[in-house]
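[Protein data]
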Amino acid sequence: MLMRKSPLLAVPLAVAGITALAGLALALPANAAASTSTYQATLDPVALNTPSGAASGTFTLTLNGDQATVTEHVTGLADTLPTDTATLNSLGIPAAFAGKPFPHVQHIHINGNDQCPTSSADTNGDGVISTVEGQPAYGMIGTTLSTSGATDTSTATDVTLAPGGGSFTYQRTFTINQATLTAIQDNKAVVVVHGLNPVNAPKASLTTPNSLGVTLPGASKPLALIGTAPALCGVLTASQMSAVPVGSSPTGGGSTAGIQDEALLGLGGGLLLAAGGAFAIRRRSSKG
């Protein structure tokens, strides 16, 4: 007499199918990948302060949670500080800075009118837009783009932590504060690079004290507007490729969607294989 085979023999094959399902599930792209977003700004000359075409820059910011990675390239700004004492004194710059790279403090300004200032921002008519006159357009300081140390307003005017020179590349990853993060995501953030070029700056910027009352260490008078007035400006906007696509786009399935579909088909095949195998063994055992 033939012994009836136990239906439990179907278990190993079913387990194999489930194992295949688990393996394919791990291969699926995680939805969490879509949390990374990228924002960009084209830095253009600020009206009155920097002649059109004289300077420019590009700015990219990638957000991953509260971690911001900034990559910036700037060219055409003020290069080095003067070396003669008389000129330094007139600008409110102490002799210790003579001949060093011209510092360019820079910030992400937030919650203004989400734009760069136009010539109409020169409310006192002196031919230069001070950083205070520009604030209605680009807002208050949210984050200081310092080269090291703090990135809050405590380093907003610290020239020792600012990138310098006529052309520079700035790269840094830091924890971004919630106010700036929210403003960026709400399209209410503007990048501003300060510090005008003495070669082409408005004359008033060489003699008028800055409207923030900034005085450099060792200086006998407040820093002139040339050191703090906005030179370049750009509105931060979300990049077209700021998120990893999940599923099919309105115009058709993308590459990620295709991978997901193939994986899901594989998962279905694994389950059918397991179910089919179990059915075959049960059927065989019933005939025994």
Q: What stands out?
A: The first strand starts at residue 36 and ends at 45.
